[in-house]
Structure formats: structure tokens, C-alpha cells
């Protein structure tokens, strides 16, 4: 029966025409029957459905990478990144930095923040190399392989973005004087000493001396801050850090600075950061272990899972904070830090390690000062 005969014999029928694969019959029909009514007249409607399963994707669709970012990969990366937190103290194996006084370590941290902005570009890359070698020597293998890779990736991305983006868009400047050719003057001769402000150019992107200076300063500062903090927190207990900071802040007591409250807050923060890392890792592992079929979830359902994940983290963190508050109240703390005795640990300091650390710090400062005059 063809379409015309079918529509004439069933005037009150919706006819759906399905376009199938070439190996199957070309058209099939489905019908929906409506009851006859005296005052209603239905017309026959043909609806043609095209099946596009065998249609090849466009060329630009083939070039788009698929399954690069997924919810499961994000959760697995979070669980893996927090398995070795940056603030976790590692007691064994005991290294050279474990024996250095915490006050000298704090002085090193201050110098490593100031030096990248005041030293030459070669000195900056030398400082990054020094911190990388020191991390490989001090930290365990499973810790420095994870931390150095992530910090180096962050610093590299920052270097490329700032280096290629500092002078990529030239400023629109209109000269107030006509060019020398219009005034009958000879053109300015080019430089013969090999100096060039533009170092590299690739299409609209260009690397200049200004961009190289800004990028190297920012990347070196980022790497030194993250990696020096990692080395200090890995080889120093929170009590030792609080003792060293209290020693430096003692003169501020005479001008009314609440040093005791600042030190207690620092000590609680260093203790609390470990709990935050543990909660982030444990909750992420709990979601991954349930083996959710993310392909069957809609976009809003995936977003709801992540909101549940964040809400669960904050709930657990607040529970830990409440437990810490109750423990401090039971031990007699009533809010006055000056009347509550806090015991710090300042042991495990070797004189030889302290002398070597101070001499190395003085040599590093002297090399950075000389680089401003020698390396021009």
C-alpha cells in the first residue's frame, strides 16, 4: 500500500514516515488513531523522520579532543594531589634541614621571597635550580616527584603567559614630530652592538626583554615561594615554627601587638591544615569508590554531585573545628592567650648545621648583590 492510498483509507490518522538504513525497507509508518467526532475534522499529516546515525561528523568535530576533562578524572586528580599535602611534617628520614634552627629557616624564607625581585635573570634560574636539587636531596621520592612536577607546571604556564603577553599588544603612540626623511635629516643608524629589544616573534606573539624580565621574576617567585614553604613545613614541626616566629615578634609586644594570640592562631592553623587536606582526599576517594556512571548523568546532576562534595567537606571541617574548641575548653583555655601557658619545642638543632646554613645564606645574598653589577 502506497502513501496516497494509506492517507485516503485512514483520513483521521497521523502517519509517521521513518527513513531507515539502505539495507532495510525505505519507509515504515506508525499511526495514531483519533476518535471520530461530528464537529471535528482531522487532516492527514505526514511527518518524515530522518535517521542520521550513519552521517559522518564534520572535520572540526574530529579535531576536538573528547573525554579530556571529566568529573571522574577531576576527582581522581584531587584525591591524588592531596595524598602528599604540602604542609605535612615528615620525621623520617632525618635530613640536614631537620637539624637547622627554625629561626634560620624563617630567615631563609624571607630571603627567598625578596631575592627573585632584586637579582639578575641568571641568578633567578640558578635559584630555581638550587631549590630543585635541594628538594630532590631532602624530600622522599614519592613527595618531590609530585610536588616538583605540579609547581614546575604552574611556573611554566605563568612564564609563557606573562612572557608572550607582556608586549604582544603594542601601544598606540602617535609621534609629535615628523619622520627624519620629511625634514631632510638622515635616518637614525641602527645599533651595531647586537642589542635587540625583540627576542622572539611568532605571528602575533612576541617575546621582548621586558616580557622576559616580568615572566622570569613571576615564575621564579612562584616556584621559590611554593617550594621553599614545602621544604620548611616538611622538615619543621608546627611547634618549632611557632617558637621561631615568637622569637622574632617579641619586640612587638612593647607596642601593643597581641603576639601570643598571633602565635596561638598560627599553631592552630598549621595543625588544622592537615585535617583539611585529609578531608578533601577522603571525601573524593569516597565518591570515586562508588563508581558512578557519569555518562548517564545530566549536567545539572553532575553539578549537584560536586556541590554535595563541597558541602560534605565543609561539614566535616566544621565538626573538626568544634572538637578542637571543646578540647581546648576542657584543658582550661578561656580566650586569654597570655594567661594560658603554651609549650614550644625548640630542640633538634645542631650547631654545625646552623653555621653552614647561615654561611650559605650570606653567600647567596652576596651573589645576588654582585649580580646586579657584574651580570648586566
TrEMBL record:
Listed transmembrane segments: 121-139, 151-173
What subcellular locations does the record give? Membrane
Report the superkingdom from the record: Eukaryota
Say yes or no: keyword Membrane present: yes
- Swiss-Prot/TrEMBL keywords: Membrane, Transmembrane, Transmembrane helix
Q: Which CDD domains match?
A: EcfT
Membrane topology per the entry is: Multi-pass membrane protein
Q: Which GO terms describe its cellular component?
A: chloroplast; plasma membrane
The name this protein goes by in its record = Cobalt ion transmembrane transporter
Organism ancestry: Eukaryota, Viridiplantae, Streptophyta, Embryophyta, Tracheophyta
